[in-house]
Design goal:
Helix content is about 25%, strand content about 10%. By secondary structure, the chain is α/β, with parallel strands linked by helices. Helix 6 (about 155-160) runs antiparallel to helix 8.
Length: about 240
């Protein structure tokens, strides 16, 4: 099997640090020019054409997405499966019971409190804590805004020192997560293992806030809901 690599150059008007990442996601997905020219834009929206191991069959919004084996796939003998079917089951209890009854083979985005029970009952739990498929949440302060408290580096440092990340992972996430001391995490190309970070230190946080003109008697400057219902997979907190 021979693969031809065709080099190309992108000329950007401004610098961006997310270009490589974006090209590996939806923004970088190729659209078949043959299918586009023949069927038009509207047809291509709901009829993906590619060279993957499975071929698109049908899609019912909020119900099911079906694929069948692509017999002309370039890897001989693959895929192993005859097809794939993705069913949308919005209710978590129904989704879990479908898994337990064998109606589905894999369940995605289960509630955190259900993971340990499923694992105890013999189900294989895959935790995505590293790499590009892991999920994460974090704070991105508006430090470029001169009127924001976060324009002061001491406030940003105080915030980092004030957050008990280990406690949040253990309590809120029920241990189904990991702490990262930077915006990215292990397994991603931007991760730096030499970063020390800001360990939990509330006393240092208080001093930094006071030095910045925000004593503890001041009104709160930060409210952040932890979206455990939206981020139900094990994820990193940074």
């Amino acid at each position: 099997m021979w693969l031809t690599i065709i080099p190309f150059v992108l000329n950007l008007s401004t610098w961006t640090n997310v270009m490589l990442s974006n090209l590996t996601m939806v923004a970088g997905c190729a659209v078949s020019p043959t299918a586009f020219d023949k069927n038009g834009e509207d047809w291509c929206r709901n009829h993906p054409v590619g060279t993957g191991p499975f071929e698109f069959v049908s899609w019912e919004r909020d119900k099911v997405l079906k694929y069948k084996k692509f017999n002309n796939y370039w890897m001989t003998g693959k895929p192993y499966l005859d097809g794939l079917e993705y069913y949308v089951i919005a209710d978590n209890t129904t989704r879990q019971m479908s898994l337990r009854r064998g109606e589905i083979d894999v369940a995605h985005n289960l509630d955190l409190q259900d993971i340990k029970g499923l694992e105890k009952d013999g189900f294989v739990i895959t935790r995505l804590l590293e790499g590009g498929n892991a999920c994460s949440t974090g704070l991105v302060p508006d430090s470029a805004n001169p009127k924001s408290p976060f324009a002061d580096i001491r406030v940003r440092q105080a915030t980092a020192y004030a957050i008990d990340q280990e406690g949040l992972v253990a309590g809120v996430l029920m241990g189904e997560g990991a702490v990262s001391n930077q915006y990215t995490f292990k397994g991603q190309w931007g991760y730096n293992p030499d970063v020390v970070g800001y360990p939990y230190n509330p006393d240092k946080a208080k001093k930094l806030l006071a030095d910045a003109g925000y004593p503890m008697a001041s009104k709160p400057i930060l409210c952040f809901p932890l979206l455990t219902k939206l981020l139900q997979l094990p994820f990193r907190l940074c």
